[in-house]
Design a protein that fits this description.
Helix content: 55-70%
Structural class: mainly alpha
Shape: globular
Number of helices: 11
Radius of gyration: 19 Å
Order of helices and strands: HEHHHHHHHHEHH
Distance between the termini: 36 Å
Number of strands: 2
Strand order of the largest sheet: 1-2
Length: about 290
């Protein structure tokens, strides 16, 4: 219960400190780093500086999740990476190599056809804005995606799953409850946007379950977020995130793609006999 409470608290604290700290500095010194917003309209404009602060705030959930596991449960944080007690880089890079080309095509086509839904209907991109936004996205969006995965599909999933003795019920709690929290925290109004967010989270949860580790979920989440933002950097100098209703239908291709990606990883992991159970002796030989 304490782990479940502390993760949202950590998210609020890190987001408030970095994001609102940026707003305060920008307004105090008239730097113009954060575009003004209309309260209550559900639209957040992501300038490069604001995106940087937001991504770093969420990325902090990685050490927080690993630290809470060690502090509250007495288990080394390395066991949150995978059942092998380490982050399986070969597995992650192999999956990334398969997903990146698909998402590049999807990102270009989808953004071109759905400019408002993609948040690129603002000021046109310039060479400098594209460079700055591209670098910020490339360096920090993967960390942001990993932060959400270590919190939701890592610490929260195993915390909720621990409430049930029966494996089937524990699995159901681990798959559903953190993803409901993950969806609600986005504050979405359009039903299809809600469905897209839940499906994306559920796809990541299923991949974590079927591959015995967080790596696949991190890769899928990172590839999706990073490539969509990278493509957006060529269209607009700022990216707007619209949580209000009106663009939900544009997310249908994304819903389908997430389902296909989860199914594909499931089948691939099954054919490769990827381990899904912990080996108590994993890593012992490497430590000698």
């Amino acid at each position: 219960m304490l782990a479940i409470v502390l993760i949202p608290v950590a998210y609020v604290v890190s987001t408030f400190t970095l994001t609102w700290g940026l707003v305060f500095v920008s307004e105090s010194f008239d730097l113009g780093l954060v575009p003004p917003e209309t309260p209550g309209d559900g639209v957040v404009t992501m300038s490069p500086a604001r995106l940087l602060a937001s991504n770093l705030a969420i990325a902090l959930l990685i050490p927080v999740s690993l630290g809470l596991q060690r502090l509250l449960f007495g288990q080394s944080g390395r066991w949150m990476h995978s059942v092998h007690g380490r982050f399986r880089w070969k597995f992650a890079l192999t999956l990334a190599a398969a997903l990146v080309p698909v998402w590049i095509v999807y990102g270009i086509v989808w953004t071109t056809l759905n400019r408002e839904a993609a948040g690129v209907s603002g000021p046109p991109a310039t060479l400098m804005s594209t460079f700055v936004l591209f670098v910020v996205v490339l360096l920090t969006s993967p960390l942001q995606a990993a932060g959400e995965e270590y919190a939701a599909r890592g610490l929260l999933a195993r915390s909720f799953g621990s409430f049930a003795k029966r494996p089937a019920l524990a699995l159901l709690l681990a798959l559903l409850v953190p993803n409901l929290m993950f969806t609600v925290i986005h504050g979405l109004a359009d039903p299809l946007l809600v469905l897209y967010t839940f499906v994306a989270g559920f796809a990541c949860a299923v991949i974590t379950w079927r591959t015995g580790g967080i790596e696949g979920a991190v890769v899928l989440h990172a590839v999706n977020n990073t490539i969509l933002f990278l493509v957006a950097s060529f269209f607009s100098s700022e990216v707007t995130i619209d949580r209000s209703s009106g663009h939900g239908e544009a997310m249908v291709p994304g819903i389908i793609l997430m389902v296909l990606a989860a199914a594909g990883v499931w089948l691939w992991a099954q054919r490769r006999a990827v381990a899904r159970s912990a080996d108590p002796f994993a890593g012992h030989s490497a430590s000698r």
